[in-house]
Amino acid sequence: MSEPTPYVFDTNIVSALVGKPNVPLLERIRQNQSDVMVLCEPVIYEIEKGLEHKKAAKQLAEFQSSIIPLFNVVAVQLTDWRVAAKLWAFTRSTGKQLSDIDLLLAATVWRLKGILVSNDADFDAIPNIMRENWLDKS
Description:
Distance between the termini: 31 Å
Number of helices: 6
Radius of gyration: 15 Å
Largest sheet: 5 strands, parallel
Strand content: 5-15%
Structural class: alpha/beta
CATH architecture: 3-Layer(aba) Sandwich
């Protein structure tokens, strides 16, 4: 029996769970707990820096206590940084410029042989990234 394919979540999906959460998204995550739901450390950083900036202490506490535990947290590895550097050079040569966090996320998806859950079409610039948009109603 093969291992389940991990779903690696982008900030734009996770942020839909903070504050007034997107209930259908939350239910889909809960229903798929038998799959591997992954939250990368850079995504946690992006969410928490935004909440810190807004001084949203209640939302930050809820994120840390209720949302993060829905996921397996994955650390960035040195190989991810190296792949991200190559992806930066590649996408830059094609006229696209992705954020460092998006490049690290893509590198992590590759390492884990996962599916990126994102509604960001910028990832289309990166070859061999499988992407699903769990916010899409269609």
